[in-house]
Amino acid sequence: MSKLILVVLFVVYTDACYWNAPCSYQLFGSKTPYDTVRGDIRDYPTPKNCEAVSIWTLNRHGNRNPGKSVVRGMKDVTLLKDEIIRSWEVGTSKLCAQDIQGFRNFKWNDTIEVATTYLTGTGYDELFGIGQRLREKYPHLLEGQPEKFYFRPTNEQRTITSCVAFIHGLTEGTNLNVTMEQARQRDDVFRPYENCDRYQIEVKNGYALNYQLDTFLASPKFMAVQEAVQNRLGLTTQLNASMVLSLYEMCRFYRSWAPDHKSPWCAAFAEEELFYMEFYEDVLHYYRNGYGTWVTENLGRLAMKDLYESFMAFLEGGGRKISGHFTHDTMMEMVYCALGLYKEDAPLQAMNMDPHRAWRTSYIGAFSSNIIAVLNRCDEIASRTASQYYRVQLFINEKETPLCPLEGCTMQEFQGKFKPYSNANLDFCSMSYVPDEQDPSSSNARAISAFWRFS
Ligand SMILES: *[C@@H]1O[C@H](CO)[C@@H](O)[C@H](O)[C@H]1NC(C)=O
Ligand SMILES: *[C@@H]1O[C@H](CO)[C@@H](O)[C@H](O)[C@H]1NC(C)=O
Ligand SMILES: *[C@@H]1O[C@H](CO)[C@@H](O)[C@H](O)[C@H]1NC(C)=O
Question: CB neighbours (10 Å) of residue 168?
Fold first, then answer.
């Protein structure tokens, strides 16, 4: 009989150091780099005896600069840099020397002020990479007439340039000559919420969203984060909630542009604090783009109608080889709602963080997040008569989804799930619209999400 001796090694750190932490926190809500959460479309086999014949994609734009008001808040807190360094010199800071060195070396990036919300080089690379991987996986699709290809961005620099990057990656080294559609002023399929009164009034400026955000910022846990940051940096300047949020923006934006995905500003937060800050955005997105309101799932249905019609057109002899649509996280999340994905019975609540929640913006709304639908044509080799059938594969961020098995949905399954979207409309956007129990546009979405959950 042998005795089992457990030797427990305690490693004692004098102080937390961010710069050399063996694995620093990676998940930053909608500002998470795509590479942190993506799979790889090349790693998934095409179903047996099948060949891809048509691809439909929906893409969030890539890494971008922050918007105007975020930049303003960020610039304000960079004024704390000198105080952060001085606090360390007088011994009130808890940061380690190398993290302070990081602050000393830090320089404000002027580009982000002159090009607010513009796609960055990092963002271009993300979309280029997606196009490139699709080209490697499906090279046979990249030939033919220009009208077999369709690329449509919303009317913003960041989506138009994302579309350019995607096409660049997709067509590089081929003889393909494709163009993208001129961005339209108003896009009621891939950005329908912009002109939807009910969304603008009831959701974006509605009570539930503000209530949840206020609740989060007043929560004891957030107060504790604020106090911990204050103490860690050893500041005499009193931080408030918006300054803590701006410090978080400094951390997540600057790290997203750094080759090592680090920024000294992240040293202001301990890992569990970053974990809690991530939850803030989940709450925001849940009540603005997600299941916090019935409006969003209805806004997501039009894009799924487009997917359905795209593949049906192909079956009827027309259709395209590749169609790509370039949009925003708001749209991506509304589509997930239309599909009934990432939903739990209990609504997400600011006061009640579930560490295992299904609605996790980092995974579903990261930069460049996407849905790729692949229509495969297959040969029935077992039967004597040469017959063909189809299989639809669906990927999110180049990973498998619960929507269709890896070997693909049958056409019957695909139609069963997607045909209901074909009656999608925006009638409910009018404030004078009265939801009718009999009206498909108000009841269908619920029926569909029930279908997904139980099928
Ligand atoms: C400045 O920000 C841009 C993103 O807007 C980034 O691509 C660039 O690398 C940054 N420059 C420096 C010196 O960090
Ligand atoms: C590609 O197509 C556009 C528009 O049809 C045309 O103007 C351009 O000359 C073409 N380029 C090449 C390299 O064929
Ligand atoms: C936090 O403090 C800054 C700087 O003093 C101020 O501009 C901002 O309005 C304050 N925010 C809140 C929510 O009190």
Answer: 14
